[in-house]
Amino acid sequence: MARTLVNVPPKAKRGQVIEIKTLISHVMETGYRRNETGVAIPRDIINLFVCTYNGTEIFRADLHQAIAANPFISFFTVATESGTVEFHWTDDNGQVETASAKIAVE
Amino acid sequence: MTDEREFHLTRRTVLVGIAGATALGTAPLLTRRAEATPETMKAAIHRVIGESPVRKGKVTLEIPPLVENGNTIAMSVSVDSPMTETNYVKAIHVFNEKNPQPDIISVHLGPHAGKAAFSTRIRLADSQNVVAIAELSDGSLWSDTVEVIVTIAACLEYN
User: Fold this and answer.
1) Separation CA B72–CA B48 (nearest Å)
2) How far apart are CA A44 and CA A54, in angstroms?
3) Using one digit for the tens of pLDDT, what is the confidence trace for B37-96?
4) Cα(B82)–Cα(B92) distance, integer angstroms
5) A105 and chain B: CB distance < 8 Å anywhere?
6) Nearest-neighbour CA in chain B from A28: distance (Å)
7) CA distance B24 to B18
8) B75 touches chain A (CB under 8 A)
9) Is B11 helix (H, G, I), strand (E, B) or coil?
């Protein structure tokens, strides 16, 4: 569906608050625009973003048309243990794009 | 004599031309369709958080006050909270007054976030107020409002 870019610190100390940054390429078509022949372009946006850390949900965002194209989201979490951070973006058609990153906690 | 008359006409023509061009330039801005209103924003807020009272404070909404391009505006929200197991931010909702739809984003957090903050990039169709509301674990609601001036609006126009 789309290209993704995620930034998770590869190493962190236990208990440290880390920042996670995510980006996905997507038009985020609002449904309010028309093409050159005057036909409305149907709405197509990513409406849900979920981040899990070793299977536990740590961040969830409901997105609307007011989110700019190529949605960028950054947020924080506490580094608790080594493992995998997974990212899921869901669009209006129900398609899901995923990405993941490893983190080592010492 | 003739020359002077021509000069006057020319100057008037120029002035009228400038006035006309200015009017044409501003007309689309004044007549642009704005579907959401402060009332629809209030309705959206009630739909999401209910009728509970919202107090000002604790929330910091960061948006540049003057924006050139409404298609991409950096926005960060942070909430003053210790983020412990018993006292944390459950959710942060952001609304606008004049886009076609009043909702912007709703994020759901927990004590594991460590820091109640997030950043994203938004679209604004017009100069307006943007409101961020934080829902705390004790059920209280806190808000921050920022007035943003947008010079080029986001995508209501034709391509």
Assistant:
1) 25
2) 30
3) 888 888 888 888 888 889 999 999 999 999 988 899 999 999 999 999 999 999 999 999
4) 15
5) no
6) 11
7) 10
8) no
9) helix
Hey, what are A79's tokens?
């580094």
Give the Cα-Cα-Cα angle B37, B42, B45 (nearest 5 degrees). Answer: 125
Q: Please, what's the largest Cα pairwise distance for chain A?
A: 59
Contact between residue B95 and residue B141 where contact means Cβ atoms under 8 Å apart: no
- Per domain, the residue ranges of chain B are 1-31, 38-152
Domain A4-105 has CATH 3.40.50.720: no
Inspect the interface and report whether the beta carbons of B123 and A67 lie closer than 8 Å. Answer: yes
CA proximity to B81, closest of B52, B54, B49, B117: B117
Work out the angle at residue A52's Cα, subtended by the Cα atoms of residues B92 and B122, and round it to the nearest 5 degrees: 40
Contact check, Cβ <8 Å, B159/A59: no
CATH architecture of B38-152: Sandwich (2.60)
Rg, chain B, Cα only: 23
Inter-residue contact A26 to A71 (CB < 8 Å):
yes
Interface list for B 105-144 with A (CB within 8 A): 105-110, 112-115, 117-124
Unique residue bearing structure tokens 């906690």: A105
Class of residue B152 by CB neighbours under 10 A (exposed 0-12, middle 13-18, buried 19+)? exposed
For residue A17, pLDDT over 70 is answered with yes
Q: Are B103 and A66 an interchain contact pair (Cβ–Cβ within 8 Å)?
A: yes
CB B136 within 8 A of CB B96: no
Determine what percent of chain A falls in helix, strand and coil, rounding each to the nearest 5: 0, 60, 40
User: For A74-81, what is the mean pLDDT?
Assistant: 95
Q: How far is A37 from chain B (nearest CA, A)?
A: 10
